[in-house]
Amino acid sequence: MLFIEIIVPVFLIILAGFSLEKAFRLDFPTLTNASLYLFTPALVFAALMKREIRFDLALELGLFMVLYTAILLAIAVLCGRGLRMDRETRGALALSTVMMNVGNFGLPLAWFAFGDRGLEVSILIFVLFNIPLGTLAIVIAQGGKAPLSTALANTARIPIFHAVALAFILKAMSIPVPLFLLRPIDLLGQAAIPLMLVLLGMQLARTRLQVYPGFLCLATLMRLALAPLIAWGLCDLLGLQDLTRKVVILQTSTPSAVLPLLYSLRFGTRPDLVAGAIFTTTLLSAFSLTFLLYLLQ
């Protein structure tokens, strides 16, 4: 039942986006910008403003993000060097395994699994993991040639963080948002979750899949098997309990992120490998996430 009630709806919307792209070749950049600059910031802002923000929870999840990212990156580097991969292949492995799809895939998945009860945690996870996605992923894709300041500047331009900062300031100063403003923002935010999945399906339809069995097996095992174990262990270490623990483990056990593919295309960090890992982990996550959901229940 978990597979039918939670996993199947996610993949049906992804399939809708995939089919739409194959049939009509829609304007992908325009839809992506609409999601990035309008619908997703609206979702984040409205979700945070309608709930009590627990700053202690934000700090705990921030620590989880740092430790989780550092451990996976260290494992990816060690595996790459141990298997004598070249620099570009090591970069592709890191991009495919350290960066998970907490947004397009993870946020809708967490919402289907836990509803509005888990939305505060899933929003915070989404926002926090966009930090390494917008900084570390760029540095990895560029092979360390670009300074960290450039990557941080790129992250600062992402409007999601502006929405979070504004919500935190208003909450800290106890300033309510007038209903005539909050209602349209909330309505715009409701379009974000289905649009994320449609965009993921469109991106998969545009992906040129090339098969590299050894690399894809390693990347898939790290992303769908090892990553959940690390998340589980860190939740125990940090004392994350109940619903928070479930949302964190589920959302950080999602397939490889799509955004690093754009970085790898831009900087030539084996985009063929990254694209293959995204496609493979997305398909196989239907089984791994179903099993994980049973364990979390």
From TrEMBL:
Subcellular compartments: Cell membrane
Gene3D superfamilies named among the record's database cross-references: 1.20.1530.20
Q: Which GO terms describe its cellular component?
A: plasma membrane
Top-rank lineage group of the source organism: Bacteria
Q: Which UniProt keywords apply?
A: Cell membrane, Membrane, Transmembrane, Transmembrane helix, Transport
Question: Where is it mostly found?
Answer: membrane
User: Can you tell me which residues the record assigns to a coiled coil?
Assistant: none
Q: Name one Pfam family in it.
A: Mem_trans
Which N-terminal stretch is annotated as signal sequence?
none
List the membrane topology term(s). Multi-pass membrane protein
Tell me, which GO biological process terms does this entry list? transmembrane transport
The record lists the membrane-crossing segments as 6-24, 61-80, 92-115, 121-140, 160-181, 187-205, 212-234, 273-296
Protein family: Belongs to the auxin efflux carrier (TC 2.A.69) family.
**Protein name per the record:** Putative permease
* Organism listed in the record: Desulfuromonas soudanensis
